[in-house]
Description:
It is built from three helices and four strands; from the N terminus they run αααββββ. The chain has helices at residues 5-14, 21-41, 73-77; strands at 83-84, 87-88, 94-95, 98-99. It is an enzyme of class 6 (ligase).
Amino acid sequence: MAINEEQVKHVAKLAKLSFSDDELTGFTDQLGKIIDMVEQLGEVDTEGVAFTSNVLETINVMREDVATEGWSRDELMKNVPESEDGFIKVPAIIDNGEAGA
């Protein structure tokens, strides 16, 4: 599957990255090679190969889930630079489904 510079620009915009023309060409080439390698993995015959989720024998140590008293909202909000209606106000990072420029 070939990837073009427009697709790389789109992904870069979503990640809030900017590239020079030379970098864009280089990343397009590199991402194309990565996609080719991943597609090549799909051609590997894995018939009869057991699924491996973890190569180590690990055991989860579980503890009882016990509710405890949390922090006071007023105490927590003392450290917040800006709030609105009792919530922490943060700058918008997504506008109309796209990442901001």
